[in-house]
Amino acid sequence: MLGGGRGGSKTPDVIRARLNTAIALKDKQALERAIIDCEEAAYPELGTDLRKARDILEALGGGRGGIKTPGALIEKLKRAMRRKDMRNLEKVINECVSAGMPELDEEISRARELLEELGKTPEGLDQLRDQLRKATRSKDISLLKKAIEDAEKICIPELGSDVRKAREALEKLGGDRGGSEFIEPLREKLQSASETKDKSALQEAINKSLALGLPELDADILQAKELLKELGDLPKEAKSPEELRKQLQEATQSKDRAALEKAIRECETAKFPELGSDLAKARDSLEILGGDRQGSLSADTLLGKLKRAIRRKNRMNLEKVINECVASGFPELSPEIQEARHILKELEVLEDEKEDLITPESLRARLRKSVKKQDKSDLEKAIRECEAASLPELSYALREARAALKHLGGGNGG
Question: Is the CB of residue 385 less than 8 Å from the CB of residue 366?
Answer without folding.
Answer: yes
